[in-house]
Write a structure and sequence with these properties.
The protein is an alpha+beta fold. The chain has one domain: Rossmann fold (3-Layer(aba) Sandwich), CATH 3.40.50. It is built from six helices and eight strands. It has a four-stranded mixed sheet. Helix 1 packs antiparallel against helix 2 and helix 4 packs antiparallel against helix 5 (about 115-135). The longest helix is centred in the middle third of the chain and has 24 residues, at about 115-135. The radius of gyration is 18 Å and the shape is globular. It binds S-adenosylmethionine (SAM). S-adenosylmethionine (SAM) binds near residues 22, 46 and 47.
């Protein structure tokens, strides 16, 4: 538990929660779900679909800090939203993303690039679960701040931010504010898969669970 403090406002207490965004727990070590309607604010910068290899980029730090050994790294990668590795069976049938047009486009892409299609379909389906979990833990009147980036798929724009806002709205969130911020510096790998382009700007969306 720490203090979230910004002069002259005392913003309250912070607490480290369990690490899985689709199933938030009361603390890092507990399997007990975080109580529904208990949070005033969820502020999240979730993975960008297929734009970063988060686990590969942090594998040495995870080992040095004793947070994850090499034996469990694969398991962590498999639970990572936006991952790039899929078993053959996972690429043959795409999950429902929650959006009909996205489903159709991904089905089309799947004919020539089943892995990229599986990546985006799983990313959207799993982000939908994370948004449902954010909705569950928020109090009525609470806010969700969502930081997202758009992607390119097979050379054409893919409206990830718009889709995630749509999913949030499907769950009942109201959009209060959308900001755009150009990404000026990059801490992780920028040289990527030829099909993955660099994300030039982030969208910061403030959403509200109605009171
Ligand atoms: C855009 S980065 C945000 C990093 C964060 N803002 C920070 O400063 O550490 C997205 C993060 O989400 C993590 N992530 C991936 N899948 C997740 C999951 N299922 N639950 C929680 N976090 C996940 C990634 O490992 C990565 O660290």
């Amino acid at each position: 538990m720490g203090s979230l403090w910004s002069h002259p406002l005392q913003l309250g207490q912070t607490k480290i929660l369990g690490g899985e965004a689709r199933q938030l727990t009361s603390d890092e070590r507990s399997a007990a779900p975080m109580p529904s309607g208990s949070a005033d604010l969820v502020l999240t910068s979730p993975p960008y679909g297929g734009a970063q290899k988060y686990i590969r980029a942090s594998s040495l730090s995870l080992g040095w800090l004793n947070l994850c050994g090499s034996a469990t790294l694969g398991q962590l990668e498999r639970s990572s939203i936006g991952r790039e590795h899929f078993r053959k069976t996972e690429t043959s049938e795409l999950p429902d993303t929650g959006d009909r047009r996205a489903n159709n486009r991904l089905k089309e892409v799947s004919r020539s690039d089943p892995v990229r299609a599986a990546l985006f379909a799983n990313y959207l389906a799993e982000m939908g679960l994370a948004l449902s979990e954010a909705w569950r833990v928020l109090k009525d009147g609470g806010h969700l701040v969502l930081i997202t980036g758009d992607n390119h798929l097979k050379g054409k724009p893919f409206p990830t931010s718009h889709l995630l806002r749509q999913f949030a709205s499907d769950r009942g969130f109201q959009t209060r504010l959308i900001l755009r911020d150009r990404i000026r510096s990059r801490g992780l790998l920028t040289k990527r898969h030829s099909a993955a382009s660099i994300i030039p700007e982030e969208h910061i969306t403030v959403l509200r669970k109605p009171a």
